[in-house]
Amino acid sequence: MKHDEIDRKLLEELAEDGRLSYVELAEKVGLSRVAVKDRIKNMQDKGVIEKFTVVINSEKFGKKVSAFFEVDVEPKQLQEVAQNLADNPSVASIYQMTGPSTLHMHVLVEDFQMLETFINNELYSVEGITRVESSVILKRFKSRTGYKL
């Protein structure tokens, strides 16, 4: 799907502040409110805009430990293990990476005791997981919340 500079500007503005009204967006891109509404609806219908959401600072909401995991899984159990982990409320995101059986996962928990509990109870006990590597985030310099234009 082709997008012009106005679509790009609308997406940039919405990525910066998803609460902007159609009137405010229209003023920023030089179109009418109705034209902006139609463009945004079109981008939603085409799947360019998947959803509107809020970005929560996990640390300020009590999730003070953020860790990334590389999880190797038996190939025949990859889908089942990935879905099981995806359903866990501590898992912020999970992706299948290159290679037939590697999952990359971001986990948010309250403290290091909860991280240890997650590792022991939610990872090491899962049948099909063959290897787990973890890295704890010490400091966040930048966080991306979607595709940046």
Automatic annotation (TrEMBL):
Keywords tagged on the record: DNA-binding, Transcription, Transcription regulation
Pfam families given in the database record: AsnC_trans_reg (PF01037), HTH_24 (PF13412)
HTH asnC-type domain residues: 1-64
Keyword Ribonucleoprotein: no
Transcription regulation found in the keyword field: yes
Coiled coil (residue ranges): none
Listed PANTHER family: LEUCINE-RESPONSIVE REGULATORY PROTEIN (PTHR30154), TRANSCRIPTIONAL REGULATOR AZLB (PTHR30154:SF34)
Protein name as annotated: Lrp/AsnC family transcriptional regulator
Provenance organism: Virgibacillus tibetensis
